[in-house]
């Protein structure tokens, strides 16, 4: 199935509350993807850690899928094919050649083919406002390459969660033609309340790009809390859909022509210039 790149299309961002029961999470996710397709979505996006979510890095490593995705990846590919939708699986955790695991996003076509994968580049090594320390780099191997995929509606840049705080990545994706940028996330509740909406709107405005941000919500095993609020933001920074704090699906009708219109009106992507940053005076 193909769609003219200039035609509006419906997207769906899924918001779920996954735990550490892979089979249970998969059943819930599949039902929601089916609901989204039945509601007219042509592109469906799921959050980071959509099939396995636990605050313990050890649990996530123990439950990581084989490097080839095991039986789960073909099942999701078959679902995309059966429904005739493009499916972005926000991320699966996969075993690698070393002790750390990969946090990998998959984009599947309506034919069920994996057309692009992206490994999360930036690791969430932080101390939260309540003093809780998180060190993703102790369990996860960071990716090393930005990814832009070609879809029937244009180019989609792929990021994951904490990547949101690195605007140069989004700028590079937009400079190389991305009209849409996916940000599947499991944003921490403490930081989400302070920064989630602001950062997503900023990335959309800076790059005159649609932002698609499916999200995890609620309480999770291993003392993890996520913010929810799956968002779809247009290139002018307008929030087209907000998932709130409960599981559900948000939709928006996306007009590819709006990207071109806003980029012509506010052509900041053409105005980037090289510059030097001198050492501070007196250093």
What features would you describe in this structure?
The chain is an alpha/beta fold. The chain has a single domain, classed as Carbon-nitrogen hydrolase (Nitrilase/N-carbamoyl-D-aminoacid amidohydrolase, 4-Layer Sandwich), CATH 3.60.110.10. The chain contains 6 helices and 16 strands. The chain has helices at 22-38, 57-62, 72-83, 167-175, 189-207, 256-265; strands at 9-16, 43-45, 86-95, 101-108, 114-119, 125-127, 133-135, 147-151, 154-158, 180-182, 210-213, 215-220, 224-227, 231-233, 239-242, 248-254. The mean pLDDT is 95.
- Proportion in β-strands: 25-35%
Total strands: 16
The appropriate CATH architecture is: 4-Layer Sandwich
What is the CATH level 1 assignment? Alpha Beta
The rough form would be described as globular
Structural class: alpha/beta
Could you give me the name of the CATH homologous superfamily? Carbon-nitrogen hydrolase
Major β-sheet profile: 8 strands, mixed
Provide the helix percentage: 25-40%
Low-confidence runs: none
Mean pLDDT: 95
The helix count comes to 6
Rg estimate, integer Å: 18 Å
Please tell me the total number of domains.
Answer: 1
Report the span from N to C terminus.
61 Å
**SSE succession:** EHEHHEEEEEEEHEHEEEEEEH
What is the fold-level CATH name, i.e. the topology?
Nitrilase/N-carbamoyl-D-aminoacid amidohydrolase
């Amino acid at each position: 199935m193909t769609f003219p790149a200039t035609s509006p299309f419906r997207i769906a961002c899924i918001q779920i509350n996954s735990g550490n029961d892979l089979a249970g999470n998969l059943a819930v996710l599949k039902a929601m993807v089916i609901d989204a397709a039945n509601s007219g979505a042509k592109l469906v996006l799921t959050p980071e850690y959509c099939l396995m979510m636990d605050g313990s890095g050890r649990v996530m490593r123990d439950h990581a899928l084989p490097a080839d995705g095991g039986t789960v990846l073909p099942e999701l590919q078959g679902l995309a094919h059966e429904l005739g939708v493009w499916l972005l699986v926000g991320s699966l955790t996969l075993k690698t050649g070393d002790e750390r695991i990969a946090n990998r996003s998959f984009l599947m076509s309506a034919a069920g083919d994996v057309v692009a994968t992206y490994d999360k580049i930036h690791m969430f090594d932080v101390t939260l406002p309540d003093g809780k320390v998180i060190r993703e780099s102790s369990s996860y191997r960071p990716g090393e390459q930005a990814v832009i995929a070609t879809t029937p509606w244009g180019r989609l840049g792929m990021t994951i969660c904490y990547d949101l705080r690195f605007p140069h990545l989004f700028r590079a994706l937009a400079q190389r033609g991305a009209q849409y940028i996916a940000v599947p996330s499991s944003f921490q509740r403490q930081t989400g309340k302070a920064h989630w909406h602001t950062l997503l709107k900023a990335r959309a405005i800076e790059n005159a790009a649609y932002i698609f941000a499916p999200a995890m919500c609620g309480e999770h095993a291993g003392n993890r809390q996520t913010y929810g609020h799956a968002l779809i933001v247009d290139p002018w920074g307008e929030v087209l859909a907000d998932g709130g704090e409960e599981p559900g699906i948000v939709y928006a009708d996306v007009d590819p022509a709006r990207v071109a219109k806003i980029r012509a009106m506010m052509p900041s992507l053409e105005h980037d210039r090289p510059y030097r940053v001198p050492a501070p005076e007196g250093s």
